[in-house]
Amino acid sequence: MPKSKIKGVGFYVPDKVIKNSDLEEIMDTSDEWIQERTGIKERRWVEGDLTTSLMGTYASKIAIKNAKISKNDIDFIIFATLSPDYFFPGSGVLLQKNLQIKEVGALDIRNQCSGFIYGLSVADQYIKSGMYENILVVGSEIHSGGLDKSSRGRSVSVIFGDGAGAAIVSKSNDESEILSTHLHSEGKFAEELAVIKPATTFWIDKIIDDGDEDGEGFFPKMNGNFVFKNAVKRFEEVIFESLNHNNYTSKDIDMLITHQANLRISQYIQKKLNIDDNNIFNNIMSYGNTTAASIPIALYEALKKNKIKRGDLVCLAAFGSGFTWASALIRW
Length: 332
Ligand code: UT7
Prior knowledge:
Blueprint: E1 3-12, E2 17-19, H1 20-26, H2 31-38, E3 42-44, H3 52-66, E4 76-80, H4 91-99, E5 105-109, H5 115-128, E6 134-141, H6 154-157, E7 163-172, E8 177-185, E9 193-194, H7 204-210, E10 221-222, H8 224-245, E11 255-258, H9 263-273, H10 284-287, H11 294-304, E12 313-320, E13 324-331
Parallel strand pairs: 4-5, 4-6, 11-12
Antiparallel strand pairs: 1-7, 2-3, 6-7, 8-13, 9-10, 12-13
The protein binds oxa(dethia)-CoA (UT7).
């Protein structure tokens, strides 16, 4: 059976830096609160005409270059986002248009913070089945335009940032391989972290009839403590699931990259798994929570800083809205 590997990674974040002190100006919050509760110091927010698919395109160009392939070698596109350019069509075909990729399939994934690992899993299965050889997997998000930036929305809006990451998943002819992926969801908690409008439950005509004047349902709503408790539990479970599946222990992990939801969550997992500081990478301090983009952005930076070398055991794990959660274990 063919094996798959991550051949190249890329990322893109907008230039505009929003520091915690900038948020202090527009809502009732403080740098101290944000850093203490989340670890975040700053995040990027888009300006001008930048779109989700365009940021994904910029990240993809870097991933394609790093994988040393041509865009013409790409057999399939997978685009993960909770903040697509349009209601439809999905951002995958827009990225295809931007990159001028030939008429390959383009699949959109809606699994929020777990979206990148879900995409990686789909790519892995297609390559293992022999169907494709080079798949572009993208996670890209623009949160900034959809946040409640008043004090009412402060517990959510201080967390999220904009950005994109991309990976080329290719057929492997060497020792590098995606060893396994594990995917989960628990729909009974769908509304614990959600944006519910506009969509078919609250379709435009109903919104107009209801007169949702303060726009509350349009903004992300999160039951923060509940999400936190579930996150730490599911992260730990799904990481152990991947280790057990491959007969490894947490001591074997050379690099752990968790979805950057909250630095306290990552530190809790690190402690639970007894992982050394050198074997975990966090960058939520600089970018906030970029949902589907956070893992490929962190992966790119960890590689750039030479924190991952060939042969390392790399573990990726995510948890988010849905609830959904997932892991991938990779021999780099
Ligand atoms: O990416 C998908 C997965 N997401 C997650 O896993 C996120 C999980 N949840 C969290 O990370 C945390 O729950 C938050 C960072 C969202 C919130 O932190 P918390 O420690 O759970 O705070 P809290 O919501 O319990 O609020 C504590 C206090 C409240 O004040 P009172 O009632 O104690 O007076 C809030 O009103 O902090 C207040 N507060 C703020 N104060 C200043 C909430 N947000 C802010 C803020 N600035 N931005």
